[in-house]
Amino acid sequence: MQQAEAKKHLNAFVEVFAEEALQKARALDEKRKSGQPTGKLHGVVIGLKDVLCYKGHKVTAASHILNGFTATYNATAVQRLLDEEAIIIGTCNCDEFAMGSSNENSFYGNTLNALDESRVPGGSSGGSAVAVQAGLCMVSLGSDTGGSVRQPADFCGIIGFKPGYGRISRYGLIAYGSSFDQIGIFAKNIPDTALLLEVMAGPDAYDSTASEAPVPSYSAGLQEKANGLRIGYLTEALEHPGLDPEMAGVISCWVKDLNARGHDVQPIDFGLIDYIVPTYYILSTAEASSNLSRFDGVRYGYRDHRPGLELTDFYKETRSAGFGKEVKRRILLGTFVLSTGYFDAYFTQAQKVRRQLFDKTQLIFKDFDIILLPTVPSPAFKIGEKTDDPIAMYLADIYTVYANLTGIPAISIPLFTHSSGMPFGVQAMSNQLSELSLLRFAHQLAGE
Ligand code: GLN
To answer: N or C, which end of the chain has less CB nearby within 10 Å?
Structure first.
């Protein structure tokens, strides 16, 4: 709590529930002392990205349009954390409606990277990443639609994990792109990541897209070693002209060394890498334009109170003032790709590419257990460096959006330091429902 106060200038939190968290901690202490059995997350202090509903607390997706809105129920993931006696310390800053890669699109202002305050922490879950990076909480939750957990984790030098689509219920997560969104975990080690996943994963009557598949005991499963894995790396990713040459060199050498650790490492011929970012930005904005139509000033948060406005003008004025620039850009883009005359050329075409990516990925997993690639093309950039160039910002999502397009689990593991002084790591992916082997592998890489 004192840490959160001392590091307030990082702007990692939108709100800290100081008094409430202290009371909860005292109550948990009493319970433990009285000898009652304790939950799996007894006293673990957790931050929530400002897109997750926590009953009775404000949730705004870092947007003016949700100003003053209070959650009326708990997200399933949040409920499961609370059931295991976690302490929710506060809501974390992020890009508005999780749209962004630098946390510069927040209504509450940007978050600073604690390792170099002139740099961005990444996004959209930048506040959640910094809260763990700077030790303001033990673990935190973000949402990952196209890399929003893995990319900020990489920029901040911590672990960022996105489970496969459907592993964790999305009930109570404010939607951006519903067929991509997944709640993700920030942590400093793999055992913490595994424990959180174990608590939150599993079927949910409130979300029909949550997987019915049984949930393994991820923490116990970590005891088993990751041996003799078939690992493929995407040559196209490592040779991509957009990748920082220093990072390319370090990662390429490191990948080849994995053979010496008893794995079988081979290059993968992929062939589709340049289609990934356009496909993601067509489909995710299409879904966003539909999801965000509910914010009309009538049902939630901010509204234009001027008397005498016609209904259409009321919607227009409310949405124009309530949404920020990037969100409006994406609603326009999404509406365009869905509109008559353009639907087939953009939306349908992108759906076909998504299918191709999925099929190709399933083929790859016939021969490989793990796919390796960088998490990001460059380390954390300076605040303001890319704000005027949305295309450059979008292109930086090249390595992360692939896992969301195909619904597979992915993790970013911090391993190296760049000559700029900033951390960077590698990203590993496994097939759907294979989170356990991915976590085991990451456990080995992280040297824990
Ligand atoms: N940076 C990506 C985007 O701006 C990813 C966002 C996310 O995962 N929420 O859409």
So the answer is: C
**Ligand 1 atom nearest to CA at 280:** 10
Test site for ligand 1: of 50, 97, 106, 124, most ligand atoms within 8 A of the Cβ? 124
pTM over 0.90: yes
Contact between 15 and 93 (Cβ < 8 Å): no
Which backbone phi and psi does 338 adopt, to 5 degrees?
A: -100, -5
End-to-end CA distance of the chain: 28
Let me know: does 433 contact 262? Beta carbons within 8 Å. Answer: no
- The residue whose CA is least distant from atom 5 of ligand 1 is 146
Which atom of ligand 1 approaches the CA of 151 most closely?
Answer: 1
The yes-or-no answer on residue 339 being catalytic is no
What residues contact 97, with CB distance under 8 A and at least 6 apart? Answer: 51, 61, 62, 63, 174, 176, 288, 292, 327
What strands lie across the sheet with 159-162, from one edge to the other? 13-16, 87-92, 45-49, 139-143, 183-187, 159-162, 410-417, 423-429, 370-374, 230-234, 264-268
Judge residue 378's burial from the number of C-beta atoms within 10 Å of its C-beta, 0-12 exposed, 13-18 middle, 19 or more buried. Answer: middle
> Using CA positions, which residue lies closest to atom 10 of ligand 1?
99
- Ligand 1-lining residues (CB < 6 angstroms): 98-101, 124, 143-148, 176, 284, 397
Using 50, 70 and 90 to split pLDDT, how confident is the model at 3? confident
- Cα(24) to centroid(ligand 1), Å: 33
**For ligand 1, atom 2: residue with the closest CA:** 146
Q: Beta-strand (E) ranges in 302-403?
A: 370-374
148 is catalytic: yes
The DSSP bridge partners found for residue 410 are 162, 429
The tens digit of pLDDT for each residue in 377-423 reads 999 999 999 999 999 899 999 999 999 999 999 999 999 999 999 99
- Residue 91 CA to residue 131 CA, distance in Å, equals 10
Chain centroid offset of residue 251 CA: 23
